[in-house]
Amino acid sequence: MIIDTHAHYDDEKFDTDRDEILNSLYEGGIEKIVNIGANLNSCEKTLELVEKYPFVYGALGVHPSDIAELNEEAFLWLEESLDHEKIVAVGEIGLDYYWCKDKEEQKKQREWFVRQMNLAREKKLPIVVHSRDAAKDTLDIVKAEKAREIGGIIHCFSYSKEIAKEYLDMDFYLGIGGVITFKNAKKTVEVVEYAPIEKIVLETDCPYLAPVPYRAKRNSSLYLPYVVEKIADIKKMTPQEVIDITRENALKVYGI
Ligand code: NI
Predict the structure, then answer these.
(1) Low-confidence ranges of the chain (pLDDT < 50)
(2) Rounded Cα–Cα distance for residues 205 and 221 (Å)
(3) Domains of the chain and any CATH numbers
(4) Is 0.90 surpassed by the pTM of this model?
(5) Rounded Cα–Cα distance for residues 76 and 147 (Å)
(6) Is the distance from CB of 237 to CB of 192 less than 8 angstroms?
(7) How many beta carbons lie within 10 A of that of residue 81, not counting itself?
(8) 92: CA distance to ligand 1 center in Å?
(9) CA of 63 to the centre of ligand 1 (A)
């Protein structure tokens, strides 16, 4: 069965039918999901979801676009909340220069990225990294902080094969989702061709990034078979092989 390593079921787009969708996942071939926190509110909701559903695990962290929320008190709360037994990672954390052009703000993103990364080290948890339009700075920080010792997933991997190599050399996993089915996904297809299947994990980032033929609609883990199909095509494997190997990868990286 499939493991969705990156979902946002706390999102308001699921407010009308969250319970219905989550309870239909198993029948749709989805075994486990990891709900990823992005801001403090979504971290709180993630804690509620992991309590309510046995197949839901969680990651807690503050996304670079939301670091304005972070202060010492919030950081302390994060630190304590990470001790929950179903919280399996720190994330999503990282850099986003696509939505933030201000140099001072970018500097703050780097500072909180490093602090949250070191929180993961302290808690012996992997990191889930969000990086957009910030390839060099993200890689520089990951190297300088020796994040190889922490490990984790580069979520929604969108950079080149060359950058992928750098992360693979540090033993990171690459998160692949709906984008791989898009017509303009040439770069990501190259990355999937290049990366060993043992270093790829499946993710939705739902409600965002639904695969073709549902592109631009609300995404859910139930659409992951379209991503599996595409990866199987690229890797010349059967869909079942892709499901089995990426499942092992997900269990391993999150220590589930
Ligand atoms: Ni996400």
Answers:
(1) none
(2) 9
(3) 2-254 (3.20.20.140)
(4) yes
(5) 21
(6) no
(7) 17
(8) 7
(9) 8
| Spacing, Cα 117 to ligand 1 middle (Å) | 17
Q: What percent of the chain has pLDDT over 70?
A: 100
Tell me which DSSP letter residue 175 carries: E
Q: How many CB atoms lie within 10 A of CB 79?
A: 14
Number of other residues whose CB lies within 10 A of the CB of residue 222: 19
* 67: DSSP letter: G
Q: Where are the beta strands (DSSP E) in 71-172?
A: 87-96, 127-132, 152-154
- Edge to edge, the sheet with strand 127-132 lists 2-7, 30-36, 56-60, 87-96, 127-132, 152-154, 173-176, 200-202
Report the DSSP pairing between strands 30-36 and 152-154.
Answer: unpaired
Euclidean distance between CA atoms 195 and 198, whole angstroms = 8
What is the bridge-based pairing of β-strands 87-96 and 173-176? unpaired
How do residues 163-172 score in pLDDT, each as one tens digit?
999 999 999 9
**H or E stretch covering 148:** none
> Comparing C-alpha atoms, which of 195, 113, 203 is closest to residue 150?
113
Ligand 1 centroid–CA 27 distance in Å is 24
> Looking at residue 129, what is its pLDDT?
98
Q: Is the dihedral of CA 153, 122, 109, 68 positive or negative?
A: positive
Least Cα distance to 230 among 199, 200, 198 occurs for 200
Q: Could you identify the residue written with the tokens 């202060």?
A: 71
pLDDT of residue 236: 98
Give me ligand 1 centre to Cα 146, in Å.
23
Q: How many CB atoms lie within 10 A of CB 187?
A: 15
Q: Is residue 142 classed as helix, strand or coil in its secondary structure? A: helix
- pLDDT of 231 reads 98
